Sequence to fold (564 residues):
Amino acid sequence: MASDQRIQTPEQASLTKGGDPLWYKDAVIYQLHVKGFRDSTRDGYGDFNGLIEKLDYIQSLGVTALWLLPFYPSPLRDDGYDIADYRAINPRYGTMKDFRRFVKAAHDRDIRVITELVINHTSDQHAWFQAARRAPPGSQKRNYYVWSDSDEKYKGARIIFTDSEKSNWTWDPVAKQYFWHRFFYHQPDLNFDNRNVRRAVLKIMKYWLDMGVDGLRLDAVPYLIERDGTNCENLPETHQVLKEMRAEMDAHYSGRLFLAEANQWPIDVRPYFGDGDECQMAFHFPLMPRMYMALRREDATPIIDILRQTPEIPQSCQWAIFLRNHDELTLEMVSDEERDYMYREYATDPLMRINVGIRRRLAPLLGNGRRQIELMNALLFTMPGTPVVYYGDEIGMGDNVYLGDRNGVRTPMQWTGDRNAGFSEADTAALYSPIISDPPYGYQSVNVEAQDRTSTSLLAWMRRVIKLRKQYKAFGRGTFEILPLANRKILAYLRQYQNEVILVVACLSRFSQAAELNLSRFAGSQLIELFGETPFPIITEMPYLLTFAPHGFYMFRIERPNVG
Ligand code: NOJ
Fold:
């Protein structure tokens, strides 16, 4: 199909008028759960109409895209990643009409919408599974899922939810066979060797793209295909499935996005970009724990090492980078020694640990240190990739490690110091989750309203840094070069795009530091500090001396002097 015939809603057409199919490179993504944002119906659960009410806030933050966690009908035993119906909205969160209104309202504000395409598995409540378990073995219907008479197959596959699952096989008494699942035992994996499954998935994809959704996060993509004698991750056949999906998307739509969730080493994530014919974006999982490690060790080496190991990606592609999300801070992509270090430093209480990771939010991880929070965000907004901010972290929300699973980082958004934090007018006991109410993170003090009234608040700073990020394309599109320094407590890098040259220098130490940078190639140019537009001394052939307050950082523009 010719590109001018491809489907665009009117709002999407206006979004791309400015006209860039690579919009995701310059994006700032805000991740949220509809359930946790704002309840407009007093039932204790957030909903789409509540989210629409809060779009002004989202717009005021300056983010350009929203990533919504799953909002489909679901028994909610994996917070919605256990989907019972791919084509509907969980009634607690609203109706399809509400969803459409939301997409339009977001687009009217130039905010794009990224939703979840969870195709590795369904809920065991999905009609496909209910039909499969009753269908004769070997039939098309049964083969929507992966079955076996024994639990011995695919022994090379690791268990992901180590705290709750003992095997990737579960016996189904109705089918009288074992079914395969990489996650919870109630989440059977779909069988991508079945062409009907692949066709059904394409239809679901198009269903949401037709609705005007701009991007799809592809949940758990490394595990689509299983083969004996392998670890059942990242198999060539999995990439074939993704290429088919991308070809179908490109044939019918323009300006849309696949964002791969592949919690893997950079070298293994690289194929998810293909030759620019698979996913446009993929999360950079291994970078994240190394940012925390570098901070606590006061040594830039972990960050430098992982970025050096990160391969080039096609020009149209982009990493998604993040500090926290709705899951545990995963420690799968670190060595055993590094994992021990992270647990020791960031999860002293065993309650803070789950599976292979740490279930805490950004502010508590950083001891609520404002300087540390700003520093980590400064890195997030300037390192190569598109930043993803997890809702609530922009106001420094806390967590609740006493809630089960990963629910402690999924508590209601704190809007005000009023009843239920302004999240809901339901009875407090009816809320889907308790609100954080103990000092120092309790909603009485940590809330949007209070921070709106304080010019020095974290929220005010986040708005500034997001605005600043959007002023320079170099952050989203520029080259990345680490500047070698004698002082390992300082991390320095250049971002360059066309005639923009940005220098970022960050102090990972809790003490004051000094560093000398070799900037001689820019001799005669000037550094302009971006927050204050403050001119710094002219660069010469000599080492350039910078001093830092504890956890201080600079973002500079390197400006050539006006000649003549
Ligand atoms: C990845 C999601 O991020 C996580 O929340 C979920 O539990 C698993 N996929 C399994 O669905």
